[in-house]
Amino acid sequence: MGGRQEKLKGTLLSFVLAGALLLAWQVLTLPSAPPAEVIKGENAEYAQLMGMSSATPASHGFPSPSQFGHDAWQQLQAPFHNSGPNDRGIGWQLGASLLRVFIGYGLAVAVAVPLGLLMGQIPLLARALNPFIQVLRPISPLAWMPIALYTIQNAEECGIFVIFICSLWPVLLNTSFGVARVRREWLDVASTLELGWARRMWRVILPAAAPTIITGMRVGMGIAWLAIVAAEMLVGSSGIGYFVWNQWNNLSISNVILAVLLIGITGMILDTAFSALQRSVGYAE
């Protein structure tokens, strides 16, 4: 009962904070009166030609909450329209980014999990690969872009490669760590029961290491979603990162804000899915 009340209080506090942020946004974007010296003399004639007067309030240029809501609704009414490379709906762009992420991330998991299983069971292999991992792991995903563009020469495949290389390391390291930390008593029982390598892997090692492996996959997905947006802003011709950069070039700040919110919401949904998966494979010793 107490936990439910705490959860309710946290939800109410979140709504209060959201309301406070909206109020602050509204106040900060209120139009202000133009300086008197700008509308005097010859400037007054210029202001009239521009449709302004001394009583016309000056806009900040940044959209107010109501302006953002109107522009966002216009964009969300047709999220999957496709009228050319520079006129695609935000839903279409978000789907293109997710497809790249799932391909690159899937390839990373397919490589990292088996290799991590071997590293966790063969300490010599882990020691041999560790220097390479420690050198390559801190490299920013965007630092790989020039090399990828030169060698792959395809923007679409470059984005997938960036996702692969940045999400590989957390999955690999967590898998290796989880397998290496399986309790020795469980392995001894498996040996006593004369389980073969495949059955021991499937019945003992993978269930014991699963929470740690899922943690690495969760971290890898978060990094992948961060990287694809930045990569698409540099070389993309589609995707949510390209949409952000294109709308910035068009000075459509409302669409930029909408895209940023959708990036955050999508990342939250992906993380929530991995959190649920992590709880499903957890166990109490």
How is the topology of this model organized?
Layout: H1 2-28, H2 42-49, H3 65-76, H4 90-121, H5 123-136, H6 145-152, H7 155-180, H8 184-192, H9 197-235, H10 240-249, H11 253-281
Word description of this protein:
- The protein is mainly α.
- 75% of the residues lie in helices and 0% in strands.
- It contains eleven helices and no strands.
- The chain has helices spanning 2-28, 42-49, 65-76, 90-121, 123-136, 145-152, 155-180, 184-192, 197-235, 240-249, 253-281.
- The mean pLDDT is 82.
Q: Which term fits the overall shape?
A: globular
Main β-sheet: number of strands, strand sense, barrel status?
A: none
Provide the β-strand percentage band: under 5%
* Helical content band: over 70%
Mean pLDDT figure: 82
Oligomer: single chain
Order of helices and strands: HHHHHHHHHHH
Q: Which class of secondary structure composition applies to the elements?
A: mainly alpha
Poorly predicted segments:
none
- The whole-angstrom Rg is 26 Å
- Beginning-to-end CA distance, first to last residue: 26 Å
Number of helical regions: 11
Beta-strand segment tally = 0
